[in-house]
Design a protein that fits this description.
The complex is a heterodimer of chains A (about 325) and B (about 290). Chain A is of the alpha/beta class and about 325 residues long. Chain A is built from 10 helices and 12 strands. Chain A has an 8-stranded mixed β-sheet, sandwiched between helices. Chain B has about 290 residues and is mainly alpha-helical. Chain B has helices spanning about 5, 15-25, 25-45, 45-50, 80-115, 120-135, 135-150, 150-180, 180-190, 195-230, 240-250, 260-285. The chains are: A alpha/beta (about 325), B mainly alpha (about 290). The interface between A and B is medium-sized, with 40 and 26 residues. Chain A: Keywords: ATP-binding, Nucleotide-binding, Transport.
């Protein structure tokens, strides 16, 4: 049994008021995330990649109960979609989240010391006076920072505070939304090493949401590629980086700059923007931008093709 | 990341020392602060400062120019203008304090309800706020005075009612933007309840700008009070008020300019003082205007 099992998750956003939708005979809601299924084992890391607006963060919010969703989310074998308030209160001890904006996710009027110990306070844990120092040193921050305020920290320091807050309660599942956004390369490396080190020590399962493919390559065991709220390819990170089967994955990988300037590669360039999820294209939703599209891609919805440990949604895989 | 930077960190200055330091570095702020302190002190200690009863009609000189006996002269009934100005200051501060206090607390509650509550309630409250704001303050005041009768309490009521929508709207907007702020989402994800989110995370971020706004509104309130009193719709004689002094003096302006001067100069000083102070406070607390030190 996996720690986290997600089955046919669907999140719908409201587009029109009920009355307007009834008058125009249109659907009032549209799926921002559709048919997402994955499993995550303890101690493993799954990466969720895709362009902005592909529904990655929405998946994260539904996992921590801030976004109503249909489908099934099982955590430790128990369905959490229908969990009661008090069950959620307990679950929030075990599932924690690192937010996208390192400074913006810290309440601006609280000192760093009260921010890092806040999870303990909220969950009614026994606290001692050195909790703040302990948590700050765990993430490699000087304990002097405890008396400072969020706006006085650098992005990297604020990110470490976010890590300390997320790990304060020894969670079993950590959701990291863009853990490297806004950080320069060396600080990105430090944060990734920190996450890796903590995972090997505590065995926490990590779900990383990002569009940073270098991050995915270095920290994840498995990766799922999202397009327009759906998974288009999923599998072990190594296999997918070595040989992407879905044209969208290939395009993403080839858009990732290589550190070797002499390397010549054929870039697969995508034209156009991601379509709006209100008006999903017919057939394969990627056909309009796909460099390998064939005429029938516009008509036939590709099913999910499983191939051992990986799978993809394309009828003409690479 | 630089550990060196962390080790030389200065202790975080407290809010009060930050305000004082900011005011000292700002000339108009210093002027405003001194004026406000003087005005408040004069209002509080009025009975001990003035040597005459502000309402006592005396047999001495009438409409006398300033002298050592009567520092601002006397009015048409021989009352000491300096004592009357001090007493009027008390009324002005009382009206400002009571009405803005009431408007702030009511505006805070209504604004939070509108900003965080269900959509229909938000719409209903907005309709109410807009309806109230659509009356010019003085006209609305005259209407209320006609209904309830002129008194100090009526003035406070009028100012409070017309100010509530302003504060409520600001709080509502702030609450709405904070509701979706990432740090509030983060608190919810950690399991923080509504009271904690409201009192620890939302209110402190809303209150600062609001208090600054209130300090800049003090002159407006005092002008409204003076205006209503000038029209004879405010405080009742023999109670003194700057508006009453102005009204009395206005009828005799050909005989002596001193009552009009005595009634108007304090209004100017209060306006300048609170506006300067409010602007300086706004500059101190607006992080975008803060210089890196």
């Amino acid at each position: 049994m996996s720690l986290l099992e997600v089955d046919h998750l669907e999140v719908r956003y409201r587009r029109l008021g009920r009355v307007k939708a009834a008058l125009r005979r249109e659907e009032a809601t549209f799926p921002a995330v559709a048919d997402v299924s994955f499993a995550l084992e303890a101690g493993r890391t799954l990466g969720l990649v895709g362009e902005s607006g592909s529904g990655k963060s929405t998946v994260a919010k539904s996992l921590i109960g801030l976004q109503p969703a249909s489908g099934s989310i099982r955590y430790g074998g128990r369905e959490i979609g229908s969990a009661s308030q008090s069950e959620w209160q307990r679950l929030r001890r075990e599932i924690s989240m690192m937010w996208q904006d390192p400074v913006g996710s810290l309440s601006p009027r609280l000192s760093i010391a009260s921010l890092v110990t806040e999870p303990l306070k909220i969950q009614g844990h026994k606290r001692s006076s050195d909790d703040a120092d302990r948590l700050l040193s765990m993430v490699g921050l000087s304990t002097d920072l405890g008396s400072r305020y969020p706006h006085q920290l650098s992005g990297g320091q604020a990110r470490r505070v976010g890590v300390a807050r997320a790990l304060a309660l020894d969670p079993k599942l950590l959701i990291a939304d863009e853990p490297t956004a806004g950080l320069d390369m060396s600080v990105q490396g430090e944060i990734l090493n920190l996450l890796n080190e903590i995972q090997s020590r505590t065995g926490v399962a990590i779900l990383v949401i990002t569009h940073n493919l270098n991050l995915v390559r270095h920290v994840t065991d498995e990766v799922a590629v999202m397009y327009l709220g759906r998974f288009v390819e999923q599998g072990l990170t190594d296999a997918i980086f070595r040989h992407p089967r879905h044209p969208y994955t290939e395009a993403l990988l080839s858009a990732n700059p290589s550190p070797n300037p002499d390397e010549r590669h054929g870039r697969t360039e995508l034209s156009g923007e991601m379509p709006s999820p209100f008006w999903r294209p017919a057939g394969c939703e990627f056909h309009g931008r796909c460099p390998h599209a064939r005429p029938d891609c516009a008509d036939i919805v590709p099913g999910w093709t499983g191939e051992g440990e990986r799978g993809y949604a394309c009828r003409y895989p690479l | 990341m630089s550990q060196a930077q962390a080790t030389v960190s200065l202790p975080e200055p407290t809010v009060i020392s930050r305000i004082l330091r900011g005011l000292a570095g700002n000339r108009t702020g210093t002027i405003g602060f001194v004026l406000v302190v003087l005005i408040l002190a004069a209002a509080i200690f009025a009975p001990w400062i003035s040597q005459y009863d502000p309402a006592a009609i005396m047999t001495g000189p009438r409409m006398a120019p300033p002298s050592s006996d009567h520092w601002l002269g006397t009015d048409n009934l021989g009352r000491d203008l300096f004592s009357r100005v001090l007493a009027g200051g008390r009324v002005a501060m009382l009206v400002a304090g009571a009405s803005l206090g009431a408007a702030l607390s009511l505006g805070l509650v209504l604004g939070l309800v509108a900003g965080l509550g269900p959509r229909w309630l938000d719409n209903l409250l907005l309709l109410l706020f807009d309806a109230l704001r659509s009356f010019p303050t003085i006209v609305f005041g005259l209407a209320v005075v006609t209904l309830v009768g002129p008194s100090l309490f009526t003035v406070i009521l009028v100012v409070a009612i017309t100010s509530v929508p302003i504060y409520a709207r600001i709080i509502r907007t702030q609450a709405q933007s904070l509701r979706n702020a990432e740090f509030v989402m983060a608190e919810r994800a950690m399991g923080a309840g509504l009271p904690r989110i409201l009192f620890v995370h939302v209110l402190p971020n809303v209150l600062g700008p609001l208090l600054i706004l209130a300090s800049m509104d003090v002159p407006l309130v005092i002008a409204t009070e003076a205006g209503l009193s000038f029209l004879g719709m405010g405080v009742r004689p023999p109670t003194s008020s700057w508006g009453v002094i102005l009204n009395d003096g206005y009828n005799f302006i050909r005989n002596s300019p001193w009552p009009v001067i005595a009634g108007s100069v304090p209004i100017v000083l209060v306006t300048l003082g609170f506006t300067f102070l409010g602007e300086a406070l706004r500059d101190i607390f607006d992080p975008r205007l803060q210089k890196a030190n």
